[in-house]
Design a protein that fits this description.
The strands form 3 sheets. Strands 5, 6, 7, 8, 9, 10, 11, 12 and 13 form a 9-stranded mixed β-sheet that branches. Strands 1-4 form a two-stranded antiparallel ribbon. The chain has a two-stranded antiparallel ribbon with strand order 2-3. By secondary structure, it is an alpha+beta fold. A hairpin with a 2-residue loop joins β2 and β3. Helices cover about 35% and strands about 20% of the residues. It has one domain: Creatine Kinase, Chain A, domain 2 (2-Layer Sandwich), CATH 3.30.590.10. The chain has 11 helices and 13 strands. It starts with 20 loop residues before the first strand and ends with a helix. Belongs to the glutamine synthetase family. It comes from Tepidimonas fonticaldi. GO terms for molecular function: glutamine synthetase activity. Keywords: Ligase. This is Gamma-glutamylanilide synthase.
C-alpha cells in the first residue's frame, strides 16, 4: 500500500503511511446481538502499534473532559431523549444491485409506518407496533435502560427515552442503541434513520434532547439542586431554581452555545430544525420548563431531579463529542463564575443571539470561540473543522442538495 502522499497526513500524527492501529476491546462490554444470537458485540478503543493512544478518539476526548470535571469535585449524569424515523422497506434494489455500487448509494424505497400528526395518540400505535416491538426487544436484550418508547408527532417518527446514567455510559449506550436498532430493523425489512430531517415533504424534525445534572462526587447528591431560592432573586433568575454551581454551568453552556453547535448538530441537514414554533430552539437562551428554549431547566428547590435539558442536538450527533462539548462549556462557566441572563418566557419572540442556521455558520462560530477551542484542544478542533468543512463544501457544491442529503444522510445515518 502506497500510503498517503508526502506531507498529506501532517495534521494526523501516526497515520503518515496508512499505519495500522490496534482496537483494544473491553471484555465487560460484550453483548450478544438479540437478532443474531451467534454474533457478539464489543466496544473497543484505538491504539497505535507502539502503545500510544490514537489522539482522535472521541471517547477518549469525553473521558478527558470527565476527568477535568472530576478534578473540580463533580461528575455528570445524563438522560437521553432520542427521536428518529422508521420506514417500511418497499424496494431495496438500489442498495443491493451491483450496478448501483457508487458510495454512498441511494437509500431503499420506503413507506411510512404511521401517518403522524396526533401527539402521543394511541390511534397509530397498532400500525407502529411491529417496528416498535423490535426496537424494544433490541434495547432490552442489550441491557440498555429503555424507559419509554412511543409514536412521536411526525409521520413515521418515534421516540425512545432512557433512564439516567453516568455520562460515559450514556454516550456508550447511544452508540450501541443507534447501531443496533438500524441493524435489527433492517433484518426485519425496515429502514431506521437518525437523520434529523428525512428527505420527504411535511416531515417533523428529530432532535436529541440531552438531560444533564452535576453530581457532587463527595456525597453523590445532585449538585445542581438548590435547597431554597437565593435571597432577593426574581423567578427568572437562575438562582431561584439552580444552585450556584448549576447556574455557572448553565451560563457556560449559553456562552459557548454557538461555538459548540457543530458538535451537537454536525450535519448540513440538522440546521433546518432550528425554526420558530416547532418545539425546537432558535436562539441562545434558557427557560424554566420551556420547550421552546435551547436550555430547559427542569425541577426546583429541593427537587433531587433538577437538571438542564439541552435541546440543540440532533440524533445523528457523535455522543462523545456532544457530551464533551457540554462539559467543557459548563466547566468554563464554573471556573469563571459566569451567571446566566434572566430566563425567557417568549423563546420565539425575543431578540437573543440566534443559533447558527447552517453548518457553515456553525463552523465559523467554532472558529470564533477560541476559549472552547483551547479547552477541547486545537488539534481536535482543527480535525473537526477539516472534516466538517469538506462536508459543507460538498453540500454547497452539490447540484441537487436533496439528492446529496438522501445519499449522504438518509442512506447512512
Amino acid at each position: 500500500m502506497a500510503g498517503f502522499p508526502a506531507r498529506g497526513a501532517a495534521d494526523l500524527p501516526g497515520f503518515g503511511q496508512a499505519n495500522n492501529v490496534v482496537l483494544l476491546p473491553d471484555p465487560a462490554s460484550f453483548r450478544v446481538l438479540p437478532w443474531r444470537p451467534s454474533t457478539g458485540w464489543l466496544r473497543a478503543q484505538a491504539w497505535f502499534a507502539d502503545g500510544r493512544p490514537v489522539p482522535f478518539d472521541s471517547r477518549r476526548l469525553l473521558q478527558r473532559a470527565l476527568q477535568r470535571l472530576a478534578a473540580r469535585g463533580y461528575g455528570l449524569r445524563c438522560g437521553l431523549e432520542v427521536e428518529f424515523h422508521i420506514y417500511r422497506i418497499v424496494d431495496d434494489g438500489a442498495q443491493t444491485d451491483p450496478r448501483c455500487a457508487a458510495w454512498p448509494g441511494e437509500p431503499p424505497a420506503v413507506r411510512m409506518i404511521h401517518p403522524g400528526y396526533q401527539l402521543l395518540s394511541e390511534a397509530w400505535l397498532d400500525q407502529a407496533d411491529a417496528a416498535l416491538r423490535i426496537v424494544r426487544q433490541t434495547a432490552q436484550g442489550l441491557g440498555l435502560p429503555l424507559s419509554s418508547l412511543e409514536a412521536e408527532m411526525g409521520p413515521s417518527q418515534v421516540e425512545a427515552v432512557f433512564d439516567v446514567t453516568d455520562a460515559l455510559t450514556a454516550a456508550d449506550n447511544m452508540v450501541l442503541f443507534r447501531n443496533a436498532v438500524r441493524m435489527a430493523l433492517r433484518e426485519a425489512g425496515y429502514h431506521a434513520t437518525f437523520m434529523c430531517r428525512p428527505p420527504f415533504a411535511q416531515i417533523m424534525s428529530s432532535g436529541w434532547h440531552l438531560h444533564q445534572s452535576l453530581v457532587d462526587l463527595a456525597t453523590g447528591a445532585n449538585a445542581m439542586c438548590r435547597a431554597a431560592p437565593a435571597p432577593d432573586c426574581a423567578p427568572s433568575d437562575a438562582r431561584s431554581v439552580l444552585s450556584d454551581a448549576g447556574a455557572h454551568y448553565l451560563a457556560g453552556l449559553l456562552a459557548h452555545a454557538r461555538g459548540m453547535a457543530v458538535f451537537c448538530t454536525p450535519t448540513a441537514n440538522g440546521y433546518g430544525r432550528f425554526r420558530p414554533h416547532a418545539l425546537a430552539p432558535q436562539s441562545v437562551q434558557w427557560g424554566r420548563d420551556n420547550r421552546g428554549a435551547m436550555l430547559r431547566v427542569i425541577g426546583g428547590c429541593g427537587d433531587a431531579a433538577t437538571r438542564i435539558e439541552n435541546r440543540i442536538g440532533e440524533p445523528a450527533a457523535n455522543p462523545y463529542l456532544y457530551l464533551a462539548a457540554q462539559i467543557e462549556a459548563g466547566l468554563d462557566g464554573l471556573e469563571r463564575g459566569l451567571m446566566p441572563p434572566p430566563a425567557t418566557e417568549d423563546p420565539y419572540g425575543s431578540t437573543a443571539t440566534p443559533l447558527p442556521t447552517s453548518l457553515g455558520e456553525a463552523l465559523d462560530a467554532l472558529d470564533q470561540d477560541t476559549a472552547l477551542a483551547e479547552r477541547l484542544g486545537h488539534d481536535w478542533v482543527a480535525y473537526i473543522r477539516q472534516i466538517k468543512g469538506l462536508e459543507w463544501q460538498r453540500y454547497t457544491a452539490a447540484e441537487d442538495r436533496e439528492a446529496f442529503e438522501r445519499r449522504e444522510y438518509f442512506s447512512r445515518l
